[in-house]
Amino acid sequence: xxxxxxxxxxxxxxxxxxxxxxxxxxxxxxxxxxxxxxxxxxxxxxxxxxxxxxxxxxxxxxxxxxxxxxxxxxxxxxxxxxxxxxxxxxxxxxxxxxxxxxxxxxxxxxxxxxxxxxxxxxxxxxxxxxxxxxxxxxxxxxxxxxxxxxxxxxxxxxxxxxxxxxxxxxxxxxxxxxxxxxxxxxxxxxxxxxxxxxxxxxxxxxxxxxxxxxxxxxxxxxxxxxxxxxxxxxxxxxxxxxxxxxxxxxxxxxxxxxxxxxxxxxxxxxxxxxxxxxxxxxxxxxxxxxxxxxxxxxxxxxxxxxxxxxxxxxxxxxxxxxxxxxxxxxxxxxxxxxxxxxxxxxxxxxxxxxxxxxxxxxxxxxxxxxxxxxxxxxxxxxxxxxxxxxxxxxxxxxxxxxxxxxxxxxxxxxxxxxxxxxxxxxxxxxxxxxxxxxxxxxxxxxxxxxxxxxxxxxxxxxxxxxxxxxxxxxxxxxxxxxxxxxxxxxxxxxxxxxxxxxxxxxxxxxxxxxxxxxxxxxxxxxxxxxxxxxxxxxxxxxxxxxxxxxxxxxxxxxxxxxxxxxxxxxxxxxxxxxxxxxxxxxxxxxxxxxxxxxxxxxxx
Length: 604
Fold this sequence. Notes:
With 604 residues, the chain is α+β, with helices and mostly antiparallel strands. Among the domains are: 210-343, TolB, C-terminal domain (Neuraminidase, 6 Propeller), CATH 2.120.10.30; 345-601, Alpha/Beta hydrolase fold, catalytic domain (Rossmann fold, 3-Layer(aba) Sandwich), CATH 3.40.50. 17% of the residues lie in helices and 34% in strands. It has ten helices and 36 strands. The strands form eight sheets. The protein has an eight-stranded mixed β-sheet, sandwiched between helices. Strands 1-2-3-4 form a four-stranded antiparallel β-sheet, with no helix packed on it. A four-stranded antiparallel β-sheet has the order 5-6-7-8, with no helix packed on it. β35 (536-541), α9 (550-561) and β36 (566-571) form a beta-alpha-beta unit. It is globular, with a radius of gyration of 23 Å. It starts with a helix and ends with a helix.
């Protein structure tokens, strides 16, 4: 059953939730959105709200972050180059249907997809790699071969992202990673000059600033609190006020077009809710669609309704319209086909358990089958600044449908649980976070799983932690599946094929390559492959700029030389995500089949 089910689930459409997944034309009549359908992430258009989705172009590469020009003539979007994350910006003439690449002849230019179009439509603000990292730049909203007209506005060692134009077109606001896991917000003049920080200093924590409609204020999430609050920065005076503050992490504020209200997101345990606040009265309401994770709220032009994406336990991310007057919710996209609409997808529940070092109560998400068979899986998230949520997860659903209990540990370093928990892994990578993950094994045993029939799996940083489990605690696991993993803290800082912003993050969070070399070598799984006992499957992408797969073969050779079962696949023309439909299905199928074979066989 797992095989047939995972093939279906892996292929279901989903609205994009990274960066900016959709845009609504200024007249509110046409919706552009990123949708996983027909083989990869692509941009679709539909008459809002009831039209039939129609795909934009016939591209094979992933496309993202659609943006309408203000006059409605053009649709701009980012197009990846085979998963390499070297995005180009494309433009579609909506009347003629003609496409144009605005960054031709730039094979080595790495541009983040979340660009913004100036109010007059003449310029594009973006973040691009410039030797020392990603920095804010502007370019004409026209074809620019070789990016010869690209002009950088920032050049500090911080990592800049998501620039947005002020309503008057004179400035851009952006977020920047400054040190460690700190982020700050800045404003820079589009004509040039030094950026100035929201809060007066880059030590003031702030992220993803958003302009008010009149350009006088910026909304942001941050502050000197354990749980980020929603702040409002007065650009002229530099004063900050707090629109919302609580005992949960808030993020992603957006302004209503009339400037009287904000929508924002609030994390609670393993779910993310949607809130709305009337700035004139202080009235705050939760306006969530349902259980799961809400993403990317945005207002309709009349300020009386919201759009947002919801990824729920029983369906992939879909777009919804929330009426702020009568409270009604309307589903705009529908990803689950009719024959799966009544399938008993499982919702998880929040748990906490004691870490192996007894220094922390680890939050997690437990998903249990109706008829458990004694098998279990510890499924570890990547990031590490991220967390597993009670939302759509094809692997989770396929494993639970096969009778396997799944536990997601949101280990030290996960976001969504306050700043102290998020930074608790800094300089301690592979240490406390690993003790949190192995404690999930004990928790599954406590809840009735056979200790010999528990697997571990994860992607990216979760792939690293999967290898940490197999090397640090080798006798506990029935098997492991490491997706797009890395194995070596030293190599992660030195490999020129890894994006510079990620190498910067490693230098800022894992340790100094000279001063801390002994520690980095000790906690690198590549140096302890002689301890692995469990069967291992590794999956990677040939063009991955985050975790290049060059060491996967080395690991496999070392384990096979010891007579261990070790299989691996490196998918061609794929990056970190593995987004091509055929490869995506194969990735998920192999993961489920490998785990079920060994979880069922071990201890039999």
